[in-house]
Amino acid sequence: MRRNNKLPMIVLILLAMLLLAGTLVALVGSFGGSTGAASSAASSGAASLPVVTPAPTATPGAVTQPPEMTGEPDKYKAVWISYLEYQNMDFSSEAAFTAEITAMFDQIKAAGLNRVLLHVRPAGDAMYRSEVFPWSHFLTGTQGKDPGYDPLEIMVREAHARGLAAEAWVNPYRVRIGANKPETLAVSNPAAKYMQDEATADWVHEVDGGLWYDPAVPEVRQLIVDGVAELCKNYDIDGVQFDDYFYPTTDPSFDAAAYEKYGEGKALDEWRRSNVNQLVRAVYDTVKAVNPKMTFGISPQGNADNNFGQQYSDVGLWMREPGFVDYVCPQIYWGFDYRTSSGSNKFAFDVCTKNWLDMPRDDSVALYVGLGAYRIGEGDGSSQESSEWQSGTNLAKMVKFLREAGADGYAVYRYDNLFRGPSQLIDAERAALTQANNSI
């Protein structure tokens, strides 16, 4: 074999390159990075909680990172998976659940969607292993019973394996959905403990058969914050979302005792909004303390007046001032042709969306729009008849409108109404939406 006389020169060049790289690393390190600050912020979050060891990805080496929320139009294309889906899912074993949820995620990915909003706390319970809340009854039929595996761990892992972002969707104040979901609270449920103690019994209230935490009680707010901190620390989620349920009633008797104790002379409606604002800001701070890149958003009603006057949620404030939310996603579940009984088009999809887009909004806050797939074939109760929900293309038309109007993205409510319906009309809507998603 002939000797290569150029080898020594190559070696010298490589050594010089290595020395130069080392010098550059040292220089960059002398300026300081952000990892130390982020690590310090995480350690200063809410109560210290045991950390769940992350599961390996489903297909090592082939995982696509979920899309970041950049604020560019249509980067946020989400679908809600709610407790209503859970009622028809197989949780009998880890294998059965994994097979079903991965099939669902495959369909979501194929439709051109890129984010799943996972109902992880439908009421005062958990679809994950929690030190704060009991296991959800949707898993086994009995609240507090361990299913033997962690559904959220599986959902996050399998979503990320498909390039789907995964947000944890939480109902903060709701303890029981109606009179029988669940029929019996677990003894470990914080609400059950509160109700058994005379000193804390009025921290939980019954409204129309359901149970709700009192938003005015500081200990209740801390409980909710601790639950969010646990989610953010223990799971590789991309964000946390609150639903539109805040105060369940306008009845002054709902929180009369708390108002007397904490009201400080404020008007009742102003005081209630202040209670919700305190929770929203505390949750935002908690999420950012754990991971500044993680998002916190809220999906309020499409009717802004109802949010302010009946839910006591000051969404306008959260949009105007930084430090409350990263995004809002109003549920604009009406069609283009919707008219109220008086003939007003105030809530027609295009009019209502433009009204939301015209609201003052800080540059740090994105605006997404919730679309009501459950209206397909059913209509939206318009006082004037319209065939738009029979067209097979209404959701796609809405997405096109949102792009042109300047919205940052959308979410579809909900999975079953877009993927499990037997109707050919649903198939047509899904096909049209898929084409719209893939057209950019």
Characterization of this structure:
- The chain is 40% helix and 12% strand.
- It is α/β, with parallel strands linked by helices and 440 residues long.
- It has an eight-stranded parallel barrel with strand order 1-2-3-7-8-9-10-11, surrounded by five helices. A three-stranded antiparallel sheet has the order 4-6-5.
- Helix 14 links the parallel strand 10 and strand 11.
- Helix 13 runs parallel beside helix 14 and helix 14 runs parallel beside helix 16.
- The N terminus is likely disordered.
Brief descriptors of the model:
440 residues; alpha/beta; eight-stranded parallel barrel; three-stranded antiparallel sheet; 11 strands; 40% helix; disordered N terminus
Number of helices: 16
What average pLDDT do the residues reach? 87
Q: Note the gap between the termini.
A: 57 Å
Radius of gyration: 25 Å
User: Biggest sheet, in brief?
Assistant: 8 strands, parallel, barrel
Structural class: alpha/beta
- Beta-strand portion reads 5-15%
Query: Strands of the biggest beta sheet: in what spatial order?
Result: 1-2-3-7-8-9-10-11
Overall strand count: 11
Low-confidence stretches: 1-71
Portion of residues within helices: 40-55%
Q: What is the helix/strand order?
A: HHEHHEHHEEHEEHEHHEHHEHEHEHH
**Shape type:** globular
